[in-house]
What we know:
about 40% helix
Amino acid sequence: MFKYDIIAKEGRARAGIFHTPHGDLQTPVFSPVGTQATVKTLTPEHLKELGASLVLSNTYHLYLRPGDEVVAEMGGLHQFMQWPNPMLTDSGGFQVFSLAKTRKIDADGVTFKSHIDGSTHRFTPEKSISIQENLGADIIMAFDECSDPNDQAYSKLAMERTHRWAERSLNAHTRPDQALFGIVQGGINPDLRAESAAFISSLPFTGIAIGGLSVGETKEEMHNALDIVTPLLPEHKPRYLMGVGTPEDLINGIARGVDIFDCVLPTRLARHNAAFSSTGRLNLMNANFKRDSQPIDANCQCYTCRTFTRAYIRHLIVAREFLAGTLISIHNLYALVNLVKDIRISIIDGTFESKVPEWLQTWQGNAARTATKAHS
Amino acid sequence: MFKYDIIAKEGRARAGIFHTPHGDLQTPVFSPVGTQATVKTLTPEHLKELGASLVLSNTYHLYLRPGDEVVAEMGGLHQFMQWPNPMLTDSGGFQVFSLAKTRKIDADGVTFKSHIDGSTHRFTPEKSISIQENLGADIIMAFDECSDPNDQAYSKLAMERTHRWAERSLNAHTRPDQALFGIVQGGINPDLRAESAAFISSLPFTGIAIGGLSVGETKEEMHNALDIVTPLLPEHKPRYLMGVGTPEDLINGIARGVDIFDCVLPTRLARHNAAFSSTGRLNLMNANFKRDSQPIDANCQCYTCRTFTRAYIRHLIVAREFLAGTLISIHNLYALVNLVKDIRISIIDGTFESKVPEWLQTWQGNAARTATKAHS
Lengths: 376, 376
């Protein structure tokens, strides 16, 4: 039911097709994040029109609200949110560690208090898989523990727990129409990363995720971790770099052999009036745009740029009209989804490596001032 | 450039075509309100898809923000908000009286303080027309004074001032591609309403608006005012009942010879999680909908009802996702726009009067709990 075909390679960069029950994913691919079963302010039609193929949703959030059993009763997540194409759910691990009010971790799992109402809940690998089976995404994640990258002792403990939980997640997994991915942890310690990559690769997962990056480490540390991990991964399994990232991160990640990305950055920036552009990031509330009849980015072909001026979008922001967030989200998502599509074409054409310097130069202005803890 | 053809009549109800520079309006017609150059949370594509033909925007709001001169520089309102079809602007009169922080009225005009920043501004008939010429809608309004319907002495004074301002608005009007409508006032006093209808009808306006209703009077008082006014109006000018209203009000207004309506009710209700339905108004946050796999209204063909369940929309509301407002706005606007389209067909078929009782019965449950002061 799941099959990953690599159709072209250039250096470590790969272009492939991941076959899923809800259609083929052309990789590399950037996935918009629909935390609460909706990519904020957008309809599924907007997502299709901007070229999205994969959508991520969050196990932690949907377990708490509306409840994974409600989603299952409504026919699963695809049906509930009317996204007919491939979907991915995370394991809830990251959110338990980053969002929950309090948490107590033991060898068996995590007890935590909801960030919504303070109620107490418990996640184990088995519970995470059970929730994800109720949600019904095509790609699901083993339950993992994300550590502070600067705490080496904790990174080792968290990695070891993640490995036990990976085995238990595999044992708990029952639905053949869901591809279970294991997660490589190990913080920024090269030995731990190598150990984790080897261990997770040894298990019968359909794909491999790389977790615990873009959580406060430097860009160099992220690149080093990828340089250690991806060469150790099985060639014919898709690789997913969780919660990453900026346009620059996507280019660098693909160059290091990553196939799948997700990040809240495009929609979160949109809610703060910031837009990616080929001339650097723009704050669209800027008074300079009051009478600016240009689109956000003259080089962009998205609905927003084909249709509206900066002056109009600035007016919507100043007048506190929610349509501003919708229009900027469409633009920002289009920018990343289509950057990755262009990169895919270049890998197939064999021109990727020659284009990397130009892409990095075009997009690096957008990476500045980025909150990197942008997972949910 | 403007021509109004009546193509069918049944009793006092009329079906017509109002030719404008941005296309033909099939009347009767319900206009969504785009107060600040956007129908809240919707793209122009949503509006086209739900069947809207006319969109209203507010002179008072756009004068204050972003400024009518900015809109003019950006090519006018159609271009600015990318609505290629007919548009209407009000005169700003109603908002000066209902929204501005303070106001001082004299024979020449009104001095008021902005509800946004308290800054002082002055509207006169000439200024209102000048702003509306900068905005560039197809249908524009004479500057008027809307009185408290229960204050008879003030109603008379306001009506007389409205009549002087109507003449001055006509004199100030220069753009042949804009149809100027005069406004009948007179509160709920039958003699004043008749006097105002006769006076405004005597002037060379392209169409006639009926103002000062749906501002706190009873339904019976509104119907009585319409029963006095519409028989006194010229047959071959379009008639616009400003700021009205509920589905019931539309049915009753059309039966009394009204051609054009606008109201913020559909979008305002949507922001409060309330939806029109053929079984009465629904509060979609209601816990009963948590596992309800039906659409908002099984009899509705809008995008929202064709696509999403009540359970999903309730989830979006509870999770505070803005998409809820978008989806309910689409539904509520579709309901009114298409109710009026169905009524138009029935007038052409000669079945309107026979269907009124059924329509009123279907829709009256939606009129309950309505804030009637719903102009902006």
